[in-house]
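User: Fold both of these, please.

Assistant: Here is the first one.
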Amino acid sequence: MTLSRQSIQSVSALIKAMAGILIFSIGLADTVNAETTRHKTKWNVRFGVIPVGKATFKIEFNDETYSMTASGKTVGVAEMVSPGKGRAKSSGLINGDKVMAIQHEAIYIEEKKKKNKKSTLEMEFEDGAVKTVSIEPKKKKRKKKSRKWVQIEEEQLSSVIDPGSSIIVPVAPEDVKNPRAVCNRVLNVYDGDTRFDIKLKYKYIKTISTEGYEGDAFVCQLRYIPVSGHKKNQKNINYMRDNEGIEIWLAPMENSSLFTPIRIEVPTWIGKFTAMPVFFGTSAK
């Protein structure tokens, strides 16, 4: 499998998107108690057999709260052609089989020869609704207000979570062995720029083994549903919307009824993107 410069740049963009959708503690992390569990997931990211990225998630949680930090970077040929790295933080509350976001921040740095390009995002939520959003560099509002874009309505920013919080999947303790209770759900997500839904649907059970974990994973189909904030008839948006092959494998974090991704597979027009676990388990602080 060979990748052109344009293809590798597309890979880099997909890694950045993954960081926005999946990989990205503030406030709550400072107040955790002795019952807090600390979990870590480490992934190698590949296109086909070609290494293109690495990602690490650290999640702290108890019965009522969660906090998560994440980092990722391009490697290999992607690092040579279109280098970049990102980190993110999210925190919130656990409410039954849902989470309620409180804070989210993300930083992505596109590394250039002359000067690095840095993008930052900070968001706060209140009662499930977006309270404040700060993005740097600021985007041109005039462009986003044109008829070429799907406008975001105020009511679409209620009952939403940030991308980082979407990797925390709680279920009732009696449902930890029920794959449909784990998978079948719709997550309403706002990333500071666009509103989209993530629809999960149970497919099958797969045994998976990596350092820290050996056991079953519930494989869910993931459908990306654009809602607003995106450009109309944009090729990549339409492709992701119509992509029925995306899979997210969910496994339980230690001694809990909280699930999180252990493996992700995203088929694209240039090959399959796979986040493969190299560690999944308890983490020291």
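And the second sequence with its predicted structure:
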Amino acid sequence: MSTISIDKSTGPSWGRYLLLLLPYIMVALQWGLDAVKPDNLVYEVPRLGLWPFLETHWTYAYLHIFTLVPVFCLSFDRKVAFHRFWPALLPAMAIVGGLFIIWDAYKTAVGVWGFNYEHLQGWNFLGLPWEEWLFFVTVPYASIFIYACLNAYFPGDPLRAYDKPITFTLIGLWILGAIFNLDRMYTATTFLLAAGFLLYHYIYVPNTYRSRFYRSYAVILIPFLLVNGVLTGGMTENPVVVYNPEEFMGIRIGSVPIEDSVYGFLHLFGVCYWMEWFLEQKKVKQGEKNA
């Protein structure tokens, strides 16, 4: 697997840090100005089917089992040897997951989204059900496993030549989406942060893995949308996760708000970034030890 190497000569450090902080500053301003309408969560969503076995307090827990157990068992495959990435992956998941949990807890508290306890066990911490906390473990673990598998079994980088157009198309779409939806907290927050982080990454991080992540995320979207389809009510009488319709665009992929796909990209690309950084640090230390 290719690892990260940040080219510090690209620009002054203050410029790099300012670019990284700018979307967070804009989001903080947006959060301060946007008054969220309370008690406005909607349970009626497009349904793709009805799976009776999901009508239980264990729905979200079932999804974690379905997501994690098969992938964990395959983590010891000789070619991928995913377990060898744990020392880099686990702290990467903790760093990014910690930030997303703060975001998640705040948005839940102000009423941007919420949870239907018909499908949950009811054990909360900081206003979030335990199943939501576990989301930031099982989903990145399984998703980065797909990234590692593709790199191991298909080591080429077919999208490398298209890195620039793909990157700036995504950045442009997300910036425009944020500008035209500044009054929608979920949309504006997600699009601004995703665009800002991707722009930072393109300018300051050489493309040793970015286009490979694009390829991987196109594959990851398939199980991601399946799991999120259950969470957002595509296969149950009522959703597990419910949204305030005034805080997102209302465009859905099946039952999944389109913002979820950008949220997922930001989350997983962040985990990938830190994992590759930790792998690079290990490589540097080994080089110094052998010198």
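The two ends are 23 Å apart (CA to CA).
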